């Protein structure tokens, strides 16, 4: 029975992503407009369907708590903890009424089915893993101005990398400070949990039924006006995330 459910889950997921992935790879060099349409389909249909399929066959649960949405400003910068590559589609579902854009490592821009072409054609922000800090800061400056002009919602993971065990890591301030300066937006702190249990999806198939992927807004802050404001927001956001994780896990 386990073999059959794993087989049907993988077959359904492959069927979901294969067509849009292949189409985007073919279209990307020739037509940005068509590629954008395919990428919009990935965000609006494929992302939520991914979790529905995993829920149908393997019992994966998702709890997207939107109780704080009434306090959200019209446009804002999101900072959140990071546990899995699935955090990207989770936030696409969580902020489904918004046009979200991620700050990610440049390794995500290549060779990841469904994700790479979609992230590139939607002009998400790719930070080089190798290179001078000035290049990364310039990339964030351009990204911050772009999302403001296009009324998009930038999402930043201050930890910079995924947590393997779900514990909060160090929050690095340089990227957040630069992005907040370039976009000048209010800051929304979010928290998610249990994504780390599905970080290696092939091995996670056996325990998806024990995962309840959660996401929630834990804090809303006015746009920082100084370096001190930025540091304070980052510290308070991390404390609020830790408090939420403790509540979920007790």
Q: In words, what does this structure look like?
A:
By secondary structure, the chain is an alpha/beta fold. The chain is built from 8 helices and 7 strands; from the N terminus they run ααββαβαβαβαβαβα. Strands 1-7-6-2-5-3-4 form a 7-stranded mixed sheet, with helices on both faces. The longest helix is centred in the N-terminal third of the chain and has 27 residues. It is globular and about 55 Å long. The mean pLDDT is 91.
Q: How would you sum up this structure in a few lines?
A:
It contains eight helices and seven strands. It has helices spanning 2-27, 32-58, 87-94, 116-121, 133-149, 173-183, 201-204, 227-249; strands at 61-65, 77-80, 100-105, 125-127, 153-156, 187-193, 212-221.
Enumerate the strands of the largest sheet in spatial order, edge to edge or round the barrel: 1-7-6-2-5-3-4
Euclidean distance between termini CA atoms: 32 Å
**What value does the average pLDDT take?**
91
Using the alpha-carbon principal axes, give the shape: globular
Q: What's the gyration radius in Å?
A: 18 Å
Number of helices: 8
The portion of residues forming beta strands comes to 15-25%
Contiguous uncertain segments of 5+ residues: none
